[in-house]
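### Sample
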Amino acid sequence: MRRTARPLTGTALAVAAVALAVAPAYGAPADDVEVYPSSVVPGGRVTVRTAACGEGGTATGDAGAVGAGSLSLAPGPDEKGATGSFRVPPSAVPGTYEIAATCTGSGRRVTGDLVVTLTSERVHPRGSVKTGVGGALGPDPVQTAAGVTALAVAAAGGTWLLHRRARGDGI
């Protein structure tokens, strides 16, 4: 058993090392387009940035999916990536849109997502779902007390009936 465990462990480590070497580095800005803000209302201004074109590189952006057309991305004074901006048309329909950039020198195309919403602030769900099933403690303490009392009465009545039946008194 010991002789097979070592080669299997070595093989597993080798496979893990190869997987880590081949796996893409997620979150690396060089592989995509950064859209800021990522969620905007119609008429809002959006900044697009990518480091995929290298230091000092330029790109042509495509925001046609949302109806904004094309834009130029140029390097900023302190930046290693190309940056540009556009305004989302007031007629834009809420949804998720792909924003693309094509590097001028290499022709490399990278993309990012823009979400158009009707509200400028993020709405977080609150409260409970009214499914008829759920927690015993609701928002109304009077209803909770009434429910607990009803359950206690039902349990006491059931126990009393079972006790009478066991004694032979009948129901």
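Residues 139-171 form one domain. This sample (Bacterial Ig domain-containing protein) is used throughout the tutorial notebook.
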